[in-house]
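yo

u said u wanted the structure for the complex thing, so here. seqs first:
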Amino acid sequence: MALTREQLAQRVAQELQDGFYVNLGIGIPTLVANYIPEGMEVMLQSENGLLGMGQFPTEAEIDADLINAGKQTVTMAKGASIFDSAESFAMIRGGHVDLTVLGAFEVDVNGNIASYMIPGKLIKGMGGAMDLVAGADNIIVTMTHASKHGVSKLLSNCTLPLTGKGCIKKVLTDLAFIEIKDGKFYLLERAPGVSVEEIISLTEGELIVDGDVPEMQL
Amino acid sequence: MAGFDKVVSSYEEAMAGLEDNMTVIAGGFGLCGIPENLISEIKRKGTKGLTVVSNNCGVDDFGLGILLPDRQIKKIIASYVGENAEFERQMMNGELEVELTPQGTLAEKMRAGGAGIPAFFTATGYGTPVAEGKEEREFDGRHYILEPAIKGDFAIVKAWKADRYGNLVFRKTARNFNPMAATAGKITVVEVEEIVEPGELDPDHIHTPGIYVNRLILGTFEKRIEQRTIRS
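structre next:
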């Protein structure tokens, strides 16, 4: 079975470590915050200028001056700090964020990512995504493996305008956990109940399957 | 005005000198920390052909979005421009020029503009449409592109508190692009929720020193929330 959005978030959360500063993109990545393991301290960075993002507010706590990068009202966690946008991207570009999780339309075997524009259809802008992929060393891309019509999004070459070049090393899809190195995809784990054959058939770029591929533990 | 006193008494006075075809840098992220009354004054004045530099362009009926129906904006430099139907219509019809700029690069362009740095190298956007036509260089095996700084004829800024000398304090994430915008305007206009006397703000707590500020006005704010989200 393909992973649900919640399960994708659960699997990403297994990559968290105590003391990590983490930037979570909009959509599935945001859900990762719900699966931070008990007893682990993780500080969430919101690129509009907040380190130590807390949970959503109660009705009484709502503050128009306190939002996240998705423009949602939020609260601050204990030990939070506030800064301007230049400082925020100094953290990001300067490689100070330990883990970045973001979505994508396509990735390819060379670590290229396309996530911000579909020419003629969706032209909303890249926001902070280009800075995030250029600045972070440890990035996990979360996405669906293929379109509803079975067209692979894991390609030999991205077809859409790029968000970043050669910067992606780990991809978690609803079917598989994949590493990118030396111009190839490597199958690390498969979603529970999903066969290696199915993953191969839905991966357009070169995919290396080495021995028995374990199922994800959720 | 006398000495370092930057306070003006009307929005008309605050935006005096803004002319057609000028460049305006605006603070704000989404609808958070936007200079909402200064934007309304630009609408009232009817200034046209503006190049606007701002992370976003408001929504249809609030923020910079209100300058769209009368076609007051010729070009916008922004990182994210969703959430706005009229914007999309004008962009798709070629009536509005849009220069999509990565958010961190946009912040740094403003910062550099205000800091006397004409351009800077960044890895952001290398190998993407953003790099087209820009100089590329390698440092320590990584690729970077040269991004020019941005300066504005006007900068419009929203802060929380100020003293009459224009020393500014921002509040929570309403700070965002405002401090950089404040440095990058030939004329920087700031609207605030409270003005105190010089000496009343702790110098250690001032985010933006008054040297960057030309005009200061006391306003009242709607502070509209774009995505009201509460926990269940």
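The longest helix of chain A spans residues 5-13. Chain A is about 15% helix and 30% strand.
cya
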